[in-house]
Design goal:
two-stranded antiparallel sheet; globular; 4 helices
Length: 193
């Protein structure tokens, strides 16, 4: 009986990974053969690894320029204090509205909706009243919503003329960078397309 319970607990993440894999995600260890394989599904970048808050990435990011290359949009935002919860493939998601303060790269409306896998109490979820600089891609699962490039690699806290990296798993990306310097790196970065 205990084995059957563990099989059910493990079946959902395996099924989710299979669905995401079939929908355009790529194998992190595979060598890309085409541009489509080199650019993984934006929503698949926030793939749960199993129970808990742990998230996996399909791609590692080692610089601000690399984050910018795989982003559709780079923006400075302030929380609009509206948070929604949704369930997709039996996984919890949080959608947070943000007012756009500055568009560094791309085109954005005045307010954007950022979608993340997790629940409001999860450590990696953006705060509804926070100020951030975000590297985003358009969601492939929800029109009008964005997902964060590299799960948490594309999140910087916006404070007093500098951007502070929040991701402890990306040590090659600067911990702090002046906004002027960051803007220049983002604008100089090539596009993945």
């Amino acid at each position: 009986m205990a084995l059957r319970k563990h099989i059910r607990v493990l079946a959902l993440p395996v099924l989710f990974a299979a669905v995401v894999g079939c929908s355009g995600g790529s194998d992190p260890g595979a060598t890309p053969n085409s541009e489509a394989q080199a650019r993984p599904s934006s929503d698949a970048q926030q793939q749960p690894e199993g129970p808990g808050d742990g998230l996996t990435r399909l791609r590692e990011y080692n610089s601000i320029a690399e984050l910018a290359t795989y982003s559709d949009l780079v923006v400075r935002v302030r929380g609009a204090a509206k948070v929604e919860e949704a369930t997709v493939f039996s996984m919890p998601h949080v959608i947070t509205n943000f007012d756009v303060v500055e568009v560094v790269r791309g085109k954005a409306p005045d307010t954007i909706r950022v979608r993340q896998v997790g629940s409001p109490g999860s450590q990696h979820i953006l705060k509804a009243d926070g100020a951030y600089l975000l590297f985003l891609r358009e969601s492939e699962q929800a029109v009008g919503q964005y997902v964060i490039v590299g799960t948490v690699a594309g999140i910087f806290r916006d404070e007093s003329g500098k951007a502070v990296r929040l991701d402890p798993e990306s040590p090659d990306i600067p911990k702090e960078v002046q906004l002027d310097s960051l803007r220049a790196e983002v604008l100089d970065a090539p596009k993945a397309d």
